[in-house]
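seq:
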Amino acid sequence: MASHFHVKTPFISFSSSISSTTQLIGPSALFLRRRSVSRVPSVQAKIREIFMPALSSTMTEGKIVSWVKSEGDVLSKGESVVVVESDKADMDVETFYDGILAVIVVNEGETAQVGAPIGLLAETEEEIAEAKAKAGGKSASAPSNPALKAASAAPGIPESVVSHPTPVASAPSSPGRIVATPYAKKLAKQHKLDVSKLVGTGPFGRITPEDVEKAAGIAPTPKANPVSSVTAPSASTAAVPPAKASSNFPVIPGSSVVPFTTMQVAVAKNMVESLSVPTFRVGYPINTGALDTLYEKVKPKGVTMTTLLAKAAAMALVEHPVVNATCKDGKSFTYNSSINIAVAVAINGGLITPVLQDADKLDIYLLSKKWKELVEKARNKQLQPQEYNSGTFTLSNLGMFGVDKFDAILPPGQGAIMAVGASKPTVIADKDGFFSVKNQMLVNVTADHRIIYGADLADFLKTFAKIVENPESLTL
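struct:
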């Protein structure tokens, strides 16, 4: 398919072209495949759909933060048109084509699935009216009762008691041309379904992820965007019983409901997914006197304690590659060739893990410089996907807040995560029974027990402690 917009990431959105002389009767009128242009000369690129781009491999829907351009604005190739919020960052999306932004389909603050049209691009002013007519026809075909749509997606409601509108049959598409969103195709491949045999219920007959899930016989994934207002129930919806889950949580007077942000939805999804992994936890006390002394020396040069800990973890992982490994299919080890330390950072409205790539190969000064750049980009929601989704081991440091110890939840796709507590004066007895007071911190590591065993983690922590207690190697 022809790409319409691009972002500065490996992922781009898709677009389709609609001929101004071709009736919009089916999905075959929407997509121009790059290799089939010469075979279908009757379809000309006049009005193009602007699709919601896939900004990361885990993104299923995006939120429009702002439109940089307004309806009627003339666009040049390479210009930023819209800012999209993915599950981790805000990114400018640029156009691949010259043209006029004829219609904004998805307004600021609204969400759309990956691959869904969010606007229309016309080549000439004469085609703007036609684009608006097409957009008006599309919105008219959408369900007119949002409360019913929300009720049908709510968990716990039997499908038999929810009335669904009968989908309008579209004209058959040209042979061999299947119109489906990228995520729908991915789901179909996972469930071994032939998309050519599915009936699309999306705009212009496009096959959506819900169509694939229905064909696979699984419950559709609930949408992340909640209903902001409650509409008075009509006669057709008054008989719909409330969701079963809501009866378990009585409404507290004076309480308010705040919807998740896109990032919070992604965090919640990852946390639930992590529950399927069998994990175990090991704690280890480490003396930090020598590390504290080193930190005071390098702090004026811009080195942070987080950077020192990340470097120490990376050096220990070099000697214990199994702790840097991943179990992706439940049947095998995946040994990662790179040691990429993801570090948890709390930002406004969520949590993100910027990644220090190849942390074992960089010195602490370059690592600190890179870390400051990542934190700044994270707080401005400008991280690129490879800067937050390429971690092989995660570090979570709450010691800076005075937390003594805590357990961290294992991120999906990784083998281990280290939780670092605060360094505090602690009474310690040596092997001869003499007491002394030394600065000590407690680290807890949560690991995937399918690939990492207790002895593996104990050996790794011994190495990590040795590096921290004798930190001269960190400066090499």
